[in-house]
Design a protein that fits this description.
The protein is mainly alpha-helical and 175 residues long. It has helices at residues 8-18, 28-34, 45-55, 65-85, 95-104, 111-121, 131-151, 163-171; strands at residues 25-26, 63-64, 92-93, 129-130.
């Protein structure tokens, strides 16, 4: 995927190439074929699902051309962000690089929690989070933070909720 926003003709060509059934909308499988994470492997299906959920205005499980353009821009912006934190140019984010990124975004977590993030988002188990998994990590953190903040009225980072409220909070998150 090239950096910067390509012209509309390029995006239309890509959209038409992946819209295999010519429905005017693309599903998760089709979107996955349009995106590259930079290591010659397909985008993580969970990340694709999250992005479709974010940009699918009708709730159909597909995105139209305009929504595809927004997804493309979103992924391109994340690609620039990812590259800025991939200090060694390895194509993945190490635990230290992830910690730097997450801290830059305003989060403050314990070292132990960064181990949890690495365990969850390092799919290969090699000590690195790839681009598509980095996007997923950031989306999940943001979404959970928004859900948490609805209960954190005094903004002290502590909430008291029932188990059912917790389940409601977690299961209400659109993924």
């Amino acid at each position: 995927m090239a950096t910067g926003m390509p012209d509309g003709n390029f995006l239309l060509t890509v959209f038409q190439q992946v819209d295999k059934d010519r429905s005017g909308a693309i599903d998760a499988r089709e979107l996955q074929s349009a995106l590259s994470n930079g290591n010659f492997t397909p985008f993580n299906p969970e990340t694709i699902k999250l992005m479709i959920g974010m940009f699918d205005k009708k709730g159909s499980g597909t995105i139209n051309f305009d929504e595809f353009g927004a997804v493309w821009k979103y992924v391109t912006d994340w690609q620039q962000c990812f590259r800025s934190f991939d200090r060694d140019g390895s194509g993945n984010i190490s635990k230290d690089e992830l910690k730097t990124a997450i801290t830059t975004f305003g989060y403050r977590f314990s070292e132990k929690f960064y181990d949890v993030l690495m365990q969850r988002f390092d799919r290969t188990g090699r000590g690195g989070v790839y681009f598509d998994d980095f996007i997923q990590c950031c989306i999940v953190l943001h979404t959970l933070t928004q859900a948490f903040s609805q209960y954190d009225q005094d903004r002290d980072g502590v909430i008291t909720i029932s188990y059912e409220q917790f389940l409601h909070m977690v299961f209400s998150i659109r993924t």
